[in-house]
Amino acid sequence: MGAAAMLTVIPAHAEAASATLSGTTVIGTHNAYEKDKYTYFAQALDSGASLLELDVYTDPLSKRWRVSHSNPFGNDNNCEKATSPGQLYGQSRNQDLGSCLDNIAAWHQLHPDHRPIIFKVEMKNGFNNTIGLGPDEFDTLVAQKLGSMVYKPSDLLGGTYPTADAAAKADAWPSRDALKGKVLFELIPGTVEQANPFDHYWTDQEYGDHLRDLAAAGTLSEAQAFPAVLGAANGDPRTSRYDASIRPWFVFFDGDAATYVNNAYDTSFYSANHYVLIMTDAAGVSPAISSTAPTDTEVAARLSLLAADHASVITSDWSTKSAAVLGSVADRG
After folding, report:
1. What SS3 state is found at 89?
2. What residues are paired with 119 via a beta bridge?
3. What is the mean pLDDT of the segment spanning 9-24?
4. DSSP state string for 17-47
5. In the 8-state DSSP scheme, what is residue 130?
6. Which Gene Ontology terms describe the biological processes this protein takes part in (predicted)?
7. Which alpha helices (DSSP H) does the chain contain, by range?
8. What pTM did the predictor assign?
């Protein structure tokens, strides 16, 4: 871990234009849609954090995408009923996913050259194709609301590579400068679907199948998101979890930081292949620091430590920190 002390943490607005998405480490906010973190979701966007998390339920009664931590039948969040910049920071909250996306689009109008932001979407109870809330409908909603703002799997392939894996291994990721004004979507399976004994077809596999099938049909540009392999593991976790036909569509990985670090997993695998590695609960790595209010020095040290361990994004509940802190960028690995 001695290399951590040698890393340079760069303020977000001074980051090297040539640094690629895969060559840097940034900070994200866990459950950024919660009102005790930010009064309005636009403030989460203002925060400087490079990853913001949304929890989404498919509601079988209303057939809508709900945004909430624990209520699948209602919305409980800081997203506003706002579709234009002038409406932000003061409208009624507790809106659905479409309104959260409207907020992003409105905020983007105010900040067209903003940092690249990853939106981590935990599909709490998974997709539900039977009620018209499957991967196709998710893509359609995101595309309708955000359009060309979204950096998609087809953008990574660039018409050159056959799969996301091939593109990542060639480090086809653009520079952070080229990604200004762009957003990316990461999809992970949710706690409810994982606990459901009758659900054996989770978000990650479902969206992986979706990418494979779109690519085969020549319509990959319709896909708006990157599915993530969830859970810290040593080696390549795709080999034991997925059919060979969809393994090459996973280039996002997401797991607990302490599990990676404390077990001395060889995380160089991720940076060597230019995969995006999201390390959650960054505060819990030994020596533990506050998960809500660490000092700026502690955050900088944790960012450097986990950058040396090949993380692309580290997340915690540090919503009280300044944009200068949450917008920090470190050299990865």
Report:
1. coil
2. 52, 185
3. 64
4. TT-BGGGEEEEEETTTT-TTT-SSHHHHHHT
5. G
6. lipid metabolic process
7. 41-46, 97-110, 135-146, 153-157, 164-169, 191-195, 203-217, 238-241, 257-262, 268-272, 296-308, 323-326
8. 0.95
